[in-house]
Automatic annotation (TrEMBL):
<keyword id="KW-1133">Transmembrane helix</keyword>
<dbReference type="InterPro" id="IPR037185">
    <property type="entry name" value="EmrE-like"/>
</dbReference>
<protein>
    <recommendedName>
        <fullName>Magnesium transporter NIPA</fullName>
    </recommendedName>
</protein>
<feature type="transmembrane region" description="Helical">
    <location>
        <begin position="52"/>
        <end position="70"/>
    </location>
</feature>
<feature type="transmembrane region" description="Helical">
    <location>
        <begin position="235"/>
        <end position="251"/>
    </location>
</feature>
<keyword id="KW-0472">Membrane</keyword>
<feature type="transmembrane region" description="Helical">
    <location>
        <begin position="6"/>
        <end position="25"/>
    </location>
</feature>
<feature type="transmembrane region" description="Helical">
    <location>
        <begin position="257"/>
        <end position="279"/>
    </location>
</feature>
<feature type="transmembrane region" description="Helical">
    <location>
        <begin position="76"/>
        <end position="95"/>
    </location>
</feature>
<feature type="transmembrane region" description="Helical">
    <location>
        <begin position="107"/>
        <end position="126"/>
    </location>
</feature>
<keyword id="KW-0812">Transmembrane</keyword>
<feature type="transmembrane region" description="Helical">
    <location>
        <begin position="138"/>
        <end position="156"/>
    </location>
</feature>
<feature type="transmembrane region" description="Helical">
    <location>
        <begin position="204"/>
        <end position="223"/>
    </location>
</feature>
<feature type="transmembrane region" description="Helical">
    <location>
        <begin position="163"/>
        <end position="184"/>
    </location>
</feature>
Amino acid sequence: MTLADVVSYVAAALSAMGVAMANVMQRKAGLANGPDRAFGPRFLLDLVRSPTWLLGFGGLVGSFVLQAVALGYGQLSAVEPIITLEVPLTLLVASRVFGSRLGRPEWGGILAMTAGMIVFIAALAPQPGDATDVSHRVYLVAGGATAATIALLVGAGQRGRPVWRTACLGAAAGTSFGLTATMIKETIEQGERHGLAGVLTTWQTYTAVGFGVAGLVLVQWALHLGPLLAAQPGFTLMDPLVSIFWGVLVFDEATRSGWWLAPATAGALGVGAGVVVLARSPLLARVNASDEPMPTPATAPT
């Protein structure tokens, strides 16, 4: 493992912490300003004046900066899976902020996600590719396929049971975030080569912004439609999956193959199991929704 890898992994983990801080602090600020208030300009103005909300916003800004640093030093297929640790980190921060204790299921889910992620990254050991030597034709094919996947998931989310629709929209949101990360990778490469002018003149910058906003809208749509348990796996798992596909197939990042795929698969299954367990936590649901009662303290592990 090189120094660049270490910097990338640490920056990705801190980025996940920034997202977790933003989730909890902005949620706390929203509750403090009255969960029953109508959403509008006055409500937004009160939020912006709240030190708690500003702290959360600072965490969000910091997370974007740290993600850019992580992508600048490391590989897309390694950085994005690490950032999914925002889920257990959100629970840990929320347990402190909201005064709730985590029970055995939550601690088990946190352990499964963390251990699974370590095994997954260690087994694949992604190596650098080249994000700047990709033809427009490849971008068109890969980008079109990813955008089509998002459209198909949104379309599938228009009919059926609420849980199915929520799951599809959650997966569409995760796919949007994965595509956003791939575009940021190219933006960072252009910034390193050409400075601010490179960032402002590359089309990937604006594509990243567009799909990032689309992902945020899809998250709110999914949470409005159905339970967090149905939406969270899509939010969390599709992002790294899309990033790995882009990293390996488009940016030529190399990963281990052969028997190394067995522990990598086991690690990925551990992450998935942890996500499902943590999505059941009433405390995480409290952070992501506005119409659920505050969870009662769970029994702490003995």
